[in-house]
Amino acid sequence: MIVAFSVTPLGVGEDVGEYVADAVRVVRESGLPNRTDAMFTSIEGEWDEVMEVVKRAVAAVEARAPRVSLVLKADIRPGVTDGLTSKVETVERHLAD
């Protein structure tokens, strides 16, 4: 399963990078495959382990912000591993043709 999610602190002003970094740090320390871009962090693993990391990432932001917004999108496809890499490689292969 791949989950793309965004955690946004509310009520802390416009500069939220340090709060988002707290969430990303939790993801990176999880040891699960992950990628972060300008809008989302994607993480890959089994349902329970991925959702636990998302929960901890939200809690890290929640510890410092009065309100937190969570946007989450999941690709649930049993038996598929390394989807973070293979999905991008497939698109790149088609672009190269």
Automatic annotation (TrEMBL):
Q: What is this protein called?
A: Uncharacterized protein (TIGR00106 family)
Identify the GO cellular component terms for this protein.
cytosol
Give the matching SUPFAM superfamilies: MTH1187/YkoF-like (SSF89957)
Pfam family of this protein, just one? Thiamine_BP
From the record, give the transmembrane residue ranges. none
Assigned protein family? Belongs to the UPF0045 family.
Q: Quote the PANTHER family the UniProt record gives.
A: UPF0045 PROTEIN ECM15
Instruction: Please report the stretch or stretches of sequence annotated as the Thiamine-binding protein domain.
Output: 3-92
User: Which InterPro entries does the UniProt entry name for this protein?
Assistant: MTH1187/YkoF-like (IPR029756), Thiamine_BP (IPR002767), UPF0045_domain (IPR051614)
